Amino acid sequence: MADLKERLLPPKPASAVNLRDASYRPSASGRQPFQGVDVMGLKKRGQGLRSWIRVDSSGNSQIIEVDKFTMMRRCDLPARDLRLLDPLFVYPSTILGREKAIVVNLEQIRCIITADEVLLLNSLDNYVLQYVVELQRRLTTAAVGEVWQSEGPELNRRRSSRNYDSVFGTPSPDYLPFEFRALEVALEAACTFLDSQAAELEIEAYPLLDELTSKISTLNLERVRRLKSRLVALTRRVQKVRDEIEQLMDDDGDMAEMYLTEKKSRMESPFHEQGSMGFRSNDDSRRLDKCLSIARSRHESMRSSESGTESIEELEMLLEAYFVVIDSTLNKLTSLKEYIDDTEDFINIQLDNVRNQLIQFELILTTATFVVAIFGVVAGIFGMNFAIPLFDNPGAFKWVLMITAVCGITIFCAFVWFFKYRRLMPL
Description:
- By secondary structure, the chain is α+β, with helices and mostly antiparallel strands.
- It has 14 helices and 6 strands.
- Among the domains are: 1-142, Beta Barrel (Lipocalin), CATH 2.40.128; 351-421.
- The chain has a 6-stranded antiparallel sheet, with helices on both faces.
- Strand 1 (49-56) and strand 2 form a beta hairpin.
- Helix 8 (178-214) packs parallel to helix 13 (286-382).
């Protein structure tokens, strides 16, 4: 009990605990899962601090405590973007490309991706932990950074110009910049989460629908109603992720804005450094700084026009892969909805058939009641107090009964023939 309490207590503000050195239990696959503090975005009283998980480009992770305004200055984000990451509020799935960061809100994965690090709220949610572990695994096992560093600045220059074909032969997802790899893991986690929920819904739905077709009961109808409500909610979430990816693929400007590594490399280029060093020595450099910014923007636009197409195609291929995955999940849910609709149509047909049979039975019963009423009419007539010679005949009762029965049967057959002629019942 003491160990559990110690693990659930928030870390001390001065400590940035490396998650690899923290004590956590190994999983069944042999990999040690990520463990953090489940603060769920709650602010510390009197400090306004939040616990964040930081993963750098080398795969190192640590827990940091930063307030909202520091995070806004650090990532150059407005307050409305940080509200998208608050787990206390429910926002639709969104991927926003900003000047220095990418804001990702995909189901449980809510994080800020920069050119050097990934920041997400500290949580013990299983999918958040899996995202951190998977991102660390890919960053540490790819070893792409070591290859680039060992080849020297020439290969770094080629990397910044996106000439992967001339250096490595064919482009590979392992050579994507850091922000794209982090975004890929987030997309994979969200698509996997939605696909698993769709699979669970399928496993539960098909046996229930088959049972409903064989036995229509109030309990089964209520279960199907709840199932359909869950299906509609899940379809809406999947559709939102699909629309967000499709919207990014259709907008080249948004995709170019998300290439943070290239923008950072342009900001750190010798042209930018020389200009900034030259103008820092002059106190009255506002006008010159403005001229420099204009010249720099032109220079950057010329460089971005050369590499923009390739980088956009690179991100577009990444988005297309997960667009296919999420579209497949949406097709599963659509097929399930169509199966539910077909089951409802089948049940309605069955109920209509039963209703028609009841109407036919009621029609025949009404006709038979009319025929039987004829005997009552005859009995009422002969029960009147008047004298006729028929009453003195010993076989008169039998003849009256036979004639009445023949007339009643004839009238009943005439009604049945009329119903058949008018196609009121399938006889």
